[in-house]
Design a protein that fits this description.
22 strands; alpha/beta; binds 1-deoxynojirimycin
């Protein structure tokens, strides 16, 4: 089963083609450039690549405003280049996931152009219209402060259209069976071209009822099963990774109580408490969030991430908790976004402090689920806060200290390469970190290798062990007669913790340190007493290294 459900023990790397590698010197990354960098990703230990939208688009929301779902934007190459890329990834044993953005289209999409200009257009009912401005038009904006409304008047249709996001992203009427059929067609197309699944954008909005009279939209959860069924008929091992920032009580509605809906979902609930934990040196809300998001079908999986291409959304923390994270990681207004989040990359948030970076990534790689790494994070890339909104964290990959960080031969790139200061390409780049055995890049590579040898984390049951200190998170995983224990000290000061692992087979009293020579033997009361340095982390195998022989098949 383990090799079949590849996503349960995968390491996902998220990138946008635009910002990764420019092969033709036009200042924009492309598929040919990305394909040449596949050996780098393979060497890092990445097992799946998630591509952000690369289809034709006016590019007003970094590609999340698609104007042709069946194309590659000419700036990034051709469909031929895309297929060469998926083939090259497959040759290296790497899977490809792509963004599926079907909650809305660009307003330039021919469907919308036809729908707005002709009441009899077959596409008219593909969008959501109202003759009058609905009462709730100034509610439910996803980008508050930037987006003013969710209903905008179209002068051509002489009607208002609904847009959950920016006004140039009209929502598709996903209740329309023709729209649903088209979504399946889009999935079928890309599956045929070699992808292993989709990161589905804005899932709660895709399945929500939409319309001028809808005040509390109900979700049409059966749609998720339809997507899943279709995909698995076409390609049995393909998956959907849902972007759904929902409350734990709703998790099972997305996964499906019988495991028949989304295979994967990002764990936003844990993400926010993780950042609170790092900010306040308090592991308790994180431990609680892990418990609250624990129940799911065996085949379902969480995507665990630190930062992504959007702002760090702190919207579901309490006001005090949110303030604590702002104070620690984004005190300046220029670092914040949409009244709820922080737009910085992780490394500057942590002042480039290696100990805290290792702590954060050690957490990401050992919380229950599949880690999703963002491009550039493996070299601790920085951000450019002079760029608007979320663009600050979408700058070109820094490959070397050559011109434009080795990203492009062009004099001008789509966004400027970060240059100068502590995070400039002159000092933060792949080539330099490759040469340095102690670099962050080499640390990430080693941690990925170890994580791949710990399927207990991807598959196992996780409980948090009581310790004597609130700043320390102690997790125990059990899977097929094997157990591991992972400790993290979120505080700057060293901590001594005393804890019991609980019953195990084999040599119960022994914890073998997987990353350092610091094993632990329990005392006669079965207690371990371990000193963790400030921001320290420890990965242990319980009961010695005979674990592979002890591992059972069920
Ligand atoms: C969520 C994406 O992550 C974000 O980048 C985008 O702006 C919105 N969905 C709209 O597609």
């Amino acid at each position: 089963m383990i090799s079949d459900l590849w996503y349960k023990n995968a390491v996902v790397y998220c990138l946008s083609v635009e910002s990764f590698m420019d092969s033709d010197g036009d200042g924009v990354g492309d598929f040919r450039g990305l394909t040449r960098r596949l050996d780098y990703l393979h060497g890092l230990g990445v097992t799946a690549v998630w591509l952000m939208p690369f289809q034709a688009s006016p590019g007003r929301d970094d590609g999340y405003d698609v104007s042709d779902f069946y194309s590659v934007d000419p700036r990034y190459g051709t469909l031929g280049d895309f297929v060469e890329f998926t083939h090259a990834a497959k040759q290296r044993g790497m899977r490809v996931l792509i963004d599926l953005v079907v909650n809305h289209t660009s307003d330039q999409h021919p469907w919308f152009q036809s729908a707005r200009s002709d009441p009899k257009s077959p596409y008219r009912d593909w969008y959501v219209w109202s003759d009058k401005k609905p009462k709730n038009a100034d509610q439910g904006m996803v980008f508050p402060g930037v987006q003013k409304t969710t209903w905008t008047r179209d002068p051509i249709a002489k009607k208002y259209y609904f847009h959950r996001f920016y006004e140039f992203q009209p929502d598709l009427n996903t209740s329309n069976p023709h729209v649903q059929a088209e979504i399946l067609r889009i999935m079928g197309f890309w599956i045929q071209l070699g992808v292993s699944g989709f990161r589905m954008d804005a899932v709660p909005f895709v399945i929500a009822e939409k319309g001028p009279d809808v005040s509390t939209p109900k979700e049409q959860f059966q749609m998720l099963r339809t997507f899943r069924e279709f995909l698995q008929w076409r390609k049995g091992d393909s998956v959907i990774l849902a972007e759904a920032n929902v409350l734990p009580d709703d998790d099972m509605k997305y996964f499906g109580v019988d495991g028949d809906r989304m295979q994967m979902m990002f764990n936003f609930h844990v993400n926010q408490r993780l950042f609170y934990g790092l900010a306040a040196a308090d592991a308790r809300p994180l431990a609680k969030a892990l418990k609250e998001t624990q129940s799911k079908y065996d085949t379902a999986q969480w995507g665990i991430f630190l930062r992504n291409h959007d702002e760090l959304d702190l919207g579901r923390l309490s006001p005090e908790q949110r303030q604590a994270v702002f104070d620690a990681f984004g005190p300046d207004k220029t670092m914040q976004l949409y009244d709820r989040g922080i737009r910085r990359r992780l490394a500057p948030m942590l002042d480039g402090d290696r100990r805290r970076l290792e702590l954060a990534y050690s957490l990401m790689f050992t919380l229950p689920g599949t880690p999703v790494l963002r491009y550039g994070d493996e070299i601790a890339m920085g951000d450019d806060l002079s760029l608007p909104e979320r663009n600050c964290a979408r700058t070109p990959m820094q490959w070397s200290s050559e011109k434009q960080g080795g990203f492009s031969k062009a004099d001008k790139t789509f966004l400027p390469v970060i240059s100068g200061g502590g995070f400039g390409f002159e000092t933060v780049n792949v080539a330099q970190q490759r040469r340095d055995p102690n670099s962050f890049l080499n640390w990430i590579e080693r941690i990925i290798r170890m994580r791949q040898e710990l399927p207990e984390i991807g598959w196992g049951d996780c409980v948090s062990l009581p310790t004597s200190d609130d700043a320390v998170l102690a997790l125990r995983y059990d899977w097929r007669n094997n157990a591991v224990v992972i400790l993290h000290n979120l505080a700057a000061e060293p901590k001594e913790v005393v804890f019991r692992v609980g019953p195990v087979d084999g040599e119960p009293g022994r914890l073998v340190d997987l990353l350092a020579q610091a094993h632990s033997e329990a005392d006669e009361d079965d207690r371990h007493r371990i000193v963790l340095e400030g921001y320290g982390y420890r990965w242990f195998r319980v009961g010695g290294l005979n674990y592979l022989l002890d591992r059972s098949d069920i």
